[in-house]
Amino acid sequence: MSNKPTNSALSPKSYQYKLVLLGESAVGKSSLVLRFVKGQFHDYQESTIGAAFLTQSVCLEDATVKFEIWDTAGQERYHSLAPMYYRGAHVAIVVYDITSQDTFSRAKTWIKELQRQASAGIVICLVGNKIDLADKKMVETSEAKAYADENGLLFMETSAKTATNVTELFIAIAKKLPKNESTSHSGQMRRGIELNATPQTDSQQTGCCK
Amino acid sequence: MSNLKIEETDLLCKKGCGFYGNPAWQGYCSKCWKELKHNKDDKISLKFDPKTTLQQQQQQQPSSTQQQHSLLRKSKIIPSIFGKSLSKLLLLLIFSYSSPKYHDQQSHSHRHQQSKPRSTTTRQSSEESQKVGKELVDYLRSLDMKEIMINIPKQVKGVIEKLYQMSLGNSPVDELSEMLSTFYQLMNDNMTSKHLYKAEEAEELLNLCERYVLTRLYSHLFSPSVTDDEQLDLKLQARIRSLHWISVHLLDVVLNESIDGVREHVESAITAIIEMNAKRCPQDKLECVVKCSKHIFEALKFSKNEPASADEFLPALIYIVLKANPPLLESNIQFITRFTNPTRLMTGEAGYYFTNLCCAVAFIKSLTHESLNLPESEFNRYMNGEITAHDPHISRTCEGLKLMEKNEKTLMEVKSGQEALMAEMLQMQQDMIDFKTSFHSQLTSLKMRAPLKIKPRRKKVDLDADDDSKVLQLPPPLQPQV
């Protein structure tokens, strides 16, 4: 299983994960991602015109983790559409703005929903953004941390503006993700089908294929 | 063109057996053509040159199914000579799918010598199918691995045949989709488990197989009769039409359509999403969705001067879908969701934009006054057509006037250019005249200074010339003196 040839010669293994960004519209979801994608490593993403779909890799000691980042529309009116985005996602980052209690309670709603509806192994991460505005802080770190611990979430406070904790956030996520073979390839979804099962071909063939 | 009417006798087999002939078989019926061809083949096989025949096959490859069958027959007669190329022949055969049921019918009717000819339709693959089929075969050939070549076409043919029969038998569409996704899974597992080739190759192969299967069976799988896709299409279309009054501002879209560049990208996005219906395989359809999305991002970037996020993108996409009202949108979405490789929709750029499109459609379907932050009464009045959209910010002028303004501007530019050109021309004319006169005066003054006298040319004297006058001028020849 493991001696499959991988396309990258740089590291022994590379994994790809789908990451979904959730959060109220003005909390800085896309600035967070733009900071992460443009601030470090090789930025080889094809399109820089939009910040809605981006990819970026993180190098750990033993593996390369490639994130495929799906941004979602945060406005309340599109809330019901969120499940379509996080279907099949490996990671969900729920972002709130530390200067707004409202965005924190919206974040909690999303987390509840994710726990109920998203795929079983999903890694959920709660992120309080805009810590550069510490003087206007409305959501206490202890409060959010307690909530995260209670629900088994990763938790971090970041600032997309000053780049505080942005890279650290994605590295923490990369480390937490399970590194098993089933996610190493984007084009695979194992469903327990026998590998060498003979394909059911038509027995009524014209009799010339042997 | 002289005889437009075709008599029934013209359609019958040239051999006169009473069955209908086919132009593809040079006017013979299948049976007679087979016999004829068989005799020919036997003759050919006697003086067989493997090299030239192989070339012939390759030339004939994209031709009609019938020819490929005859090639196969050749291979059965002389398999040992073909050796390596046998697998290639197999490929050719396998991709020239024809329903076995049909052949059975034909031979059956021949055997019993029924008096009434049966009219049956041949399943000849379309141009598109032949093209993708060729792509797949070429790719398989380029990989140059016998094991794969034989196995994959077999499976592909198997699945096409099965799906075809199922769709004829009106099986529920879920079963078809389930079968196809099992097929993709199986192919993928088979390929990765055998370690025969690289991940990219496996991906490309799977991609081509999918392309081929779905292009081949497009008419059976797109908006199948067992589903109510068609009604849903009409319903969605009517729904979008009834929402024509929704403006950029109601959706909080940041598009500023008064900027030329933005309008161009909006138009391109609309074209791209409409174009989706014209494509056959999901990959191409998804490509259109991606193209549309890219244009939307460009338009947003133009309006906002910074990369747009999903917060801006989704409303803009909804707006574009409302404006475009793409044909058979529901059917297209269903076709992609049901039959493409599921991983394509879960990951990747195309998957992301397709998800957005699905979201946009879901939003449009379930849109209420709340989603637009409008009072219910006002929403209803809009829907009833009692009030029409009046948006002072955007379409202050109608499209025609905008176009007129634009044209006027262009005309003005052309006019000023023309005037400049004219002035330059006049200037040049003047310059030419000036030049002429100055040239003349210079010339005359020069002439005055040094008048040109042309002396007559000196004539050469030709001693040998047979001229009497010259001879006469010469002194008389000396006489010998004794």
TrEMBL record, chain A:
Pfam families: Ras (PF00071). PANTHER family: PTHR47978. Belongs to the small GTPase superfamily. Rab family. SMART domains: RAB (SM00175), RAN (SM00176), RAS (SM00173), RHO (SM00174). Residues 197-210 have a biased composition (Polar residues). The gene is 20194868. GO terms for molecular function: GTP binding; GTPase activity. The lineage of its organism: Eukaryota, Metazoa, Spiralia, Lophotrochozoa, Annelida. Residues 181-210 are annotated as: Disordered. NCBIfam families: small_GTP. One of its GO terms (cellular component) is endomembrane system. This is Ras-related protein Rab-5C. Keywords: Nucleotide-binding. GO terms for biological process: intracellular protein transport.
UniProtKB/TrEMBL annotation, chain B:
It holds the Pfam family DUF5601. Residues 7-41 form the A20-type domain. Residues 104-132, 457-482 are annotated as: Disordered. Keywords: Metal-binding, Zinc, Zinc-finger. Signal peptide: none annotated. InterPro entries: DUF5601, VPS9, Vps9-like, VPS9_dom_sf, Znf_A20. The keyword Cell division does not apply. GO terms for molecular function: DNA binding; guanyl-nucleotide exchange factor activity; small GTPase binding; zinc ion binding. One of its GO terms (cellular component) is endocytic vesicle. Residues 230-373 form the VPS9 domain. GO terms for biological process: vesicle-mediated transport. This is Rab5 GDP/GTP exchange factor. It comes from Helobdella robusta.
